Amino acid sequence: MNALRLEAMKRARGSGPIPPDALILQAEITAEARRLNQERPTWNELPEVF
């Protein structure tokens, strides 16, 4: 999801300079993605298959 948000921002601005508010948003999205990548998933026991 974060990658899609960053891609949409990139397409919207084209090849021009990145505005300061977009830089802040980009940093927030990147920080959120890094935080989510560090979380450990919770694994539930699967039922036995007979």
Protein described:
The protein is mainly α and 50 residues long. Helices cover 62% and strands 0% of the residues. The chain has 2 helices and no strands. Helix 1 runs antiparallel to helix 2. The longest helix has 19 residues. The chain starts with a helix and ends in a 12-residue tail after the last helix.
Question: What is the gist of this entry?
Answer:
The protein has two helices and no strands. With 50 residues, the protein is mainly alpha-helical.
Strand content: under 5%
Radius of gyration equals 18 Å
> Any low-confidence stretches, pLDDT <50, length ≥5?
none
Largest sheet: none
**Termini gap:** 37 Å
The shape is elongated
What does the secondary structure layout of this molecule look like, with pairings?
Blueprint: H1 2-13, H2 20-38
Helix pairs in contact: 1-2
Which features would summarize this protein structure in a list?
50 residues; mainly alpha; elongated
